[in-house]
Amino acid sequence: MQKQWLIFRTFLIAALSGLAFYKIGIFLPWLLGPMIALLLLRQVTKLEFIWPKLLRQIGLIILGVQIGSSFTKQAIELMWYDFPLMILLTVSVVGMALVLSILFMKMSGESLATSILGSLPGGLSQMVLLSEEVKTANSTVVTLMQTFRIFAVVTIVPFLTAWIPKGTHFDELSLTDVTSFNVSHFLFFIGMGVTFFILMKRIHFPLPELMAPILSMAIVQFITDHSVVEVPTLLLIVSQIFVGAHLGLQLEKVSELFTFRLFWSILGTNVLLITFCAFMAYLLMFIHPVNSFLDFFISAAPGGIAEMSITALETGADLSTVTSFHLFRIFFILLLAGPLVTMALKKWVKS
Description:
The protein is mainly α. Helix content is 77%, strand content 0%. The longest helix has 36 residues, at 73-108. The model is unreliable at 168-179 (pLDDT under 50).
């Protein structure tokens, strides 16, 4: 009974803080409210909070369905034209992250392996697993760097995007029928989503709760050219509360590891990386004027796909563009950059 009460209290505080942020006009209230409130309460009070992994998973599934619904057949066909830009943006951001890892090493005094694996924007759990394979890497610091980067991006980027004009270039893209509900299409989506989820769990692919509904929804809608399902606004709010509560409590677990030197090293390099992302977005806007600066900036931002998708939802950026760019970066780092960097670091240690 005590556990259920703690879970309910955590949710109540998260929901009320989101509502408070919404009432006073803070941007991205239902994500930032729970995240900041729970983080601060853990620091200044002795209150105990419990947030089950299941609630985070439910939040990610709801977000995945909403994100997947943006992948219309027309939007997916247009993604082919963005493919060269995905390569350019991903290689540029990853390259800058590697350059800044050297600066971080100089500022913090951490090892090269720790600095590189902590700086790569490839997902917290994946980078931590890679760091465990390299003897000179400090997995604890890598966890801290990855977690704080997500927190910094989720805090800074939404406030910056609030001042950027919203794009409307994809408003005309709609499915041939967005009002009717097709049971067979929905069941096909559920079956495919469950299959993707099981396969992703087996190969330890990042965020299967989010990725499985995105991919299955995109495939079904591309094949049928028909909307599968729309997510009610209330469910989207609940999903953001669930994810925001998780982020706030997750950061608290490593916050006591901060030193003044480490804090400024992480903050400084992340601000520089976000600034570089803004520069790349400005450049790509001229190369490919079909997309707005807002689309490219959120696509380039080195945050998690869930957090950046929520930002895209709230700012009116093209959700399919933002998601596809982040998906490409995940694949690029997990399948190419991450393993290559790990192999190079292992050889460096042996030599």
